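seq as requested:
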Amino acid sequence: MRLWLKLRIWRSAFGRYIYLGLLGFIIMFGMRRTGGDRNQRRPWRSITPVGEDSGLFMKMASVNAIIVERENRRQRPFVHHKVEDSDHTGLLRDAASMPRLIRGREDLKRDKTPFDDAYNKGTYLLEPTDSHTYTQLNTPRNICFDHRGMPRRVPMIIFVTSALGNLKRRDHVRVTYGNSQAWEVSDEPLVRTVFMLGATADPVLQAKISAEARIYGDIVQEDFIDSYLNLTRKTVMGLKWVTEHCRHAKFAMKIDDDTMLNKARILAFILRAPSHGVVIGNLNLDMPVVRSRVGDWGKYHISEDFYPASTYPPYLSGTAFIMSTDLVEATFRTALSTPLFPWEDVFMGMCWKKIGVSLMHDYHFMCTSNTEECYGDKEWPKYTVFVNLPAEYMVRVWVESTVYAEKQLPDIRK
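struct tokens:
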């Protein structure tokens, strides 16, 4: 019986491997076709417009870096491998491609919010803190370190939160932005990707996940139950893994498995953004707490006894956000002593508020529409991530943004 089960699991895994290869071939073919048809060319430095706000971005990052350094010193010491900075083909870091910020200088002075008045109230404060000492069921190999145990240079590590059953979504990620070879500049990948999974009591499903982990070597799995209400634990697991296994990376990006990246915007960011004090995404300010159980938002209901404030602290949409790894470490340490909250993006906002950093908002960080507003030829280059995409759109966005980015590579080598 056990032999039959193993054969069935490996046959299924081998079938996915073949499917992945075919999908990769289709994507490469599509890139060649698209590359032959497109003649548009814009200077690399203008891919991400910043206007007059680039100075504000740099100022916020500098202030945040000081706060985060102090917080990391205050927390228990953490030893990690140090990797010397690489200029990646001689490119100098500057603010030319920083995203526009919605927050003005007056917002930086606004320290008090409705959240402060109720911060020390509510039964949510009685929720347990989580020391996050779960057992690792699977862990990636050779992602941020080579086979000799030497650290790789990793400008950005992406950790993808994924549900156990989302095998096809992970496959689409693996042949698009999850393929490290797609990010090579001078034969060196700038981005690497891992998946975050919880556990299951189903032995057949768990065996499939373990087989998938052995084949691809990109799955982080711990033994808490994989569920919607455990997304907070899963996000903290990502922070923990980056802190303990890839702290020498410059940036970490958290992203959901149904979201696609614009390669050109990501490259512009990781090559030119300051490498400390960065926390950026789609910022939510003064978001009201859902009190009603009725309607589409009813699943986000929170009682007044549990959380008495009428609004949440500032937080970034949990679909995707980017942090420099100094802030990843500080956020992870802070999360261990913060009472758990059911919504992971709000929980992260609580942690960032405790640290005292300012969150950064990019006007064009995220597009949530399934219309030509996102995918028109003149529109998609503006956005960094695309949310809730069907598979065919994921492939289209990746192919077009890859071709677009490749046409700019000669510019970034100058």
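Residues 25-52, 78-115 have pLDDT under 50 and may be disordered.
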